[in-house]
Design brief:
single chain; two-stranded antiparallel ribbon; globular
Length: about 230
Amino acid sequence: MESIGVLATGIAHDLNNILTPIMMAVPLMREWAPAGEAGKILEMIEQNASRGASLVRQLTDYARGTGGARQTMEVSGLLAEIGRFVRAAFPKNIEFRAEAEPGLPAIRADGTQIYQVLLNLCVNARDAMPDGGVLRLVAKARAVRAPAAGEAAPIPAGSYLELAVEDTGRGIVPEVLAHIWEPFFTTKQRKQGSGLGLSTVRSIIRSHHGFIDVRSTPGEGTQFSVYLPAQAPD
């Protein structure tokens, strides 16, 4: 673990050197770029560079043994950001649908980490639909009245914000489903994935005292459901 911490510190330093000139250049480019499509592209570059900088801080926090900053937040802004990214960057044969019920509860979370969770699940859904399909991101309040079956242990009773990422892709066969949370396990080609995505997702959710569940039918699609404790209203 100490060696991983040293490695994380080195990676964070190098990434910071890469991202700094990008973040400095965007405001200058905005002065030259005309309004319209170019401005939208610059906004996306700035948002993702900012996300990258936040991930660098996460690496540094990990190396120091500390967690990211948590604050009470609404997820509507994150869902809108995910939607903009997916519509701009994913293949056009993937139809994206975002559904958020009114009056969603707030959560106490690190916004960058929750964004990372949702983006990772959306990218996996994209990869499961090479010929196109439907990707749904659903947010709703969920009250668990009695312990419900989860991916590893029953989900305790309580009030949660449920974030579900659903696809109509090829699904996950049972023999693969049993290993998806293992670090470095992947069915992708070596250059397409490291096998750390889902293990990182579960680690982040657990650090937020949440739970994640997966249901998949080969040939029909997959649904990942994230449950995050809802903040009690003031």
